[in-house]
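Customer ticket, subject: "Can you confirm the structure for Gluconate 2-dehydrogenase subunit 3 family protein?"

Message body: Hello, I'm evaluating your service for our small team and ran a test protein. I'd like someone to confirm that this is what the system normally returns, since I don't have a reference to compare against.
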Amino acid sequence: MREVDKRTTVRRRVFLRGAATAPAAAAAVAAGMTIAPNAAWAADLKAVKPNTMTVLARAARDIYPHDQLADRYYIAAVLPYDDQAAKDAALKSLLEEGAAQLDAEAKKRFGRDYIRVGSEEQRVQVLQAVEKSAFFQKLRGDLVVSLYNQKEVWPKLGYEGSSYEHGGYIRRGFDDIDWLPEA
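Agent reply: Thanks for trying us out. I re-ran your input and got the following:
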């Protein structure tokens, strides 16, 4: 009996067609397409709706914009809200209502949901309209810790971490900040 090769074969044209679309897919991810309610990270939520969490992640990027940070860092910054909201009905309500408020304001100004507003400048206008709300103040305040306390973010922003255990900043180059403009 002859043995049959059961490995998957890919013809040259199929391979080239796939290779041609790969950069477009990578560009879509780099452009922020990972912040979507149907993304894999949103499927495991327990308490907060996927759309709400998506709005929170997009708002996090708009409140603290860093082009050198991938969406995953912003998603990681807002994901703890899901666990907290599972235990705190008031927080869950604040988050759900706050995201709905952002969507309503975006629809009023630009005719689409907050995450579908294409321009960062326009999304910032929406955020400015709600910046005095308890929702915005909670999100902005929490993000300072949840975003910037991720050790993977530190080198991307030029922070080398704690210097105490290395003898302090004086012996470790306290004046080596090269990313600040000269005064």
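A couple of notes from the result: DSSP finds eight helices and no strands in the chain. The CA atoms of residues 73 and 150 lie 8 Å apart. Feel free to reply with more questions.
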